[in-house]
Design brief:
The complex is a heterodimer of chains A (about 250) and B (about 250). Chain A has one domain: MetI-like (MetI-like fold, Orthogonal Bundle). Chain A is built from 10 helices and no strands. In chain A, α6 runs antiparallel to α8. Chain A is elongated and about 75 Å long. The C terminus of chain A is likely disordered. Chain B is of the alpha/beta class and about 250 residues long. Chain B folds into 2 domains: about 170 residues, Rossmann fold; about 60 residues, no CATH class. In chain B, the strands form 2 sheets. A 6-stranded mixed β-sheet of chain B has the order 6-7-8-3-9-10, sandwiched between helices. In chain B, strands 2-1-4-5 form a 4-stranded antiparallel β-sheet, covered by helices on one side. In chain B, α6 packs across α7. The model of chain B has no long low-confidence stretch (mean pLDDT about 90). The chains are: A mainly alpha (about 250), B alpha/beta (about 250). At the A-B interface, α7 and α8 of A face α2, α4 and α5 of B.
């Protein structure tokens, strides 16, 4: 079904460009974009791989550090009160405005782009994981207390599992934000990656190439989110187990 | 085993709080099956939670084995209205949870867990996740879990309240059989008169909030009961008596 929607959209686009003879520099027809991609597939693949690497590195850093930060904050009230307001304040700063700073700190290699992707992506993970760690049902808390479980056992046997569905919701958001961060990083300074392709092609009014890069980004985004969904299904088998049998 | 002397519990501030229970005095000997029976919100669950060490009393003295309660007692089994099974563990691991939480090796308790599950008729569901079980099966798993460490004290907070009548009868029979075999002390909170009379060696009737003990009724029915005991004249006499207490409190009208 989702493919039918996309196919109809592309068909109308193609027809529109042909009927009204739209200049490719304004809006290239889909066929022209595919032609552009077909001319140098390897080169596009290299640029996409670079952006993908930045995105995944930023995303992984956000998932690991965001998750740990959420655990620290929920386990120790003092850290919550010390650090959480600061964290919210930092998040209110537009991360795009920090991009030039990252260049100063980390140079012009891959690191500043990963840093920007991380900064943009981490907030969603932290907020959703904190929400999840605090979503333990009251009965389950009573059970844990009655069984006199240590804090470590309660965290590793109960809280983390309660948090997982929320964590994955956060990871989906943070994955698409990491991609945004990677592109922003490449806009600011880069000689490689899809962000660089878009910026340099735009400078030469090579609109089909801009669209080619955007197309790859769109496909990449869908694949990345989908891969988080697959990981979710694998990690939470109890959410998708068998039907309820009848009887008592 | 349990000695409660004018136990009270208030929630909130002194001037703007809520008195859940007021001056409850009961003594419960080892091996008794005592039902706390009363209308919803009468504080019977609060009293149970005080016994479990989940809440602190605000007045009076509450002793278990001669010692004041300063946390969940040792060898405590607990069952909740919503079974509180962990969705991410299969049935066997759910039953083994008390051993795991105590820092014991799960392997050592596995034979016992399997035996309990077999007794509950759940041998075929050892590796199933709770999601795949019906309400009655889930509550049985919870019962097996509370029995794993062979508790001396079993506290049950309306464990069958959310089940259909037929399933509830069956679990009443199962619980009674387990108690007859093991003779641990059971405190059972319910608002079903027939459930309380059927299961208990003593029924303690609570008033509406703030909860007080209205009457403490020893149930002198056969030790090993069958469901048919509910059709006897003695059973009807007890049930009628308790119903009479509820009527006199204005909780039931004809």
């Amino acid at each position: 079904m989702p493919f039918i929607g996309a196919a109809v959209f592309i068909g109308i686009w193609e027809a529109f460009c042909r009927i009204y003879q739209v200049q490719p520099v304004l809006l290239p027809a889909p066929s022209l974009i595919i032609e552009e991609l077909a001319q140098s597939p390897l080169w596009f693949a290299q640029q996409a791989a670079y952006t993908l690497g930045i995105t995944l590195a930023g995303f992984l850093a956000a998932a690991v550090f965001g998750g740990l930060f959420a655990v620290l904050i929920t386990e120790w009230k003092i850290l919550d009160r010390l650090l959480f307001p600061l964290f919210v304040a930092l998040n209110s700063v537009p991360k795009v405005a920090l991009a030039p700073l990252c260049i100063i700190w980390f140079g012009t290699g891959a690191e500043p782009k990963i840093a920007i992707a991380f900064l943009i992506a981490v907030f969603a993970v932290v907020i959703d994981t904190i929400l999840g760690l605090r979503s333990v049902p009251p009965d389950t808390i009573d059970l844990a207390r009655a069984l006199r479980g240590s804090r470590w056992k309660v965290l590793t046997r109960i809280k983390i599992f309660c948090a997982l569905p929320h964590l994955f919701a956060g990871l989906k958001v943070s994955m698409s934000l990491a991609l945004v961060g990677a592109i922003v990083g490449e806009f600011v300074s880069s000689q490689r990656g899809l962000g660089y392709v878009i910026l340099s092609a735009q400078g030469m009014f090579d609109t089909p190439r801009v669209f080619a890069a955007i197309t790859i980004l769109a496909v990449l985004g869908v694949l990345l989110i989908e891969s988080v969904s697959v990981a979710e299904r694998l990690a939470l088998p109890w959410h998708h187990s068998a039907e309820r049998p009848q009887g008592h | 085993m349990i000695a409660a002397k004018s136990v009270g519990k208030r929630f909130g501030s002194p001037e703007n709080g809520l008195t859940a229970i007021e001056s409850i005095s009961i003594d419960i000997a080892e091996g008794e099956f005592v039902s706390l029976l009363g209308p919803s919100g009468c504080g019977k669950s609060t009293f149970l939670r005080c016994l479990a060490g989940l809440e602190q009393t605000t007045s009076g003295t509450l002793l278990i084995g001669g010692k004041p309660i300063d946390g969940p007692p040792d060898r405590l089994g607990m069952a909740f209205q919503r079974d509180a099974l962990l969705d991410w563990l299969n049935v066997l691991d759910n039953v083994l949870l008390p051993a795991d939480f105590r820092g014991e090796r799960k392997r050592d308790y596995e034979p016992r867990a399997r035996e309990l599950l077999k007794m509950a008729g759940l041998s075929d569901f050892v590796n199933t996740y709770p999601r795949g079980l019906s309400g009655g099966m889930r509550q049985r798993v919870a019962m097996c879990r509370s029995l794993l460490l062979d508790p001396q004290l079993l506290l049950m907070d309306e464990p069958f309240g959310a089940l259909d009548a037929l399933t509830r009868d069956q679990l009443n029979i199962d619980l009674h059989r387990i108690w007859v075999q093991r003779r641990m002390t059971v405190i059972f909170v319910t608002h079903s008169i027939s459930e309380a009379v059927f299961l208990s060696s003593r029924v303690v009737v609570f008033s509406p909030r703030p909860g007080k003990v209205i009457e403490d009724i020893p149930i002198d029915l056969p030790g090993d009961r069958k469901l048919a005991v509910r059709d006897t004249a003695d059973f009807a006499k007890y049930a009628r008596h308790v119903r009479g207490l509820f009527e006199s409190m204005g909780l039931l009208h004809d």
